[in-house]
Prior knowledge:
The chain is mainly alpha-helical. Helices cover 48% and strands 0% of the residues.
Amino acid sequence: MHQLDIPAEAASRVEHRYYPAGHMMYVHEESRKAQAADLTAFVARVTG
């Protein structure tokens, strides 16, 4: 996070997740599904 020049409030909303597929989500269905679920939950949390 140190490389991002953003307000502390915004930085507190940044979340990190790691998946077995790494950056190649399209080749590992389990990771792709987990990422989709995590993104859906994140959007729901931050939009109320």
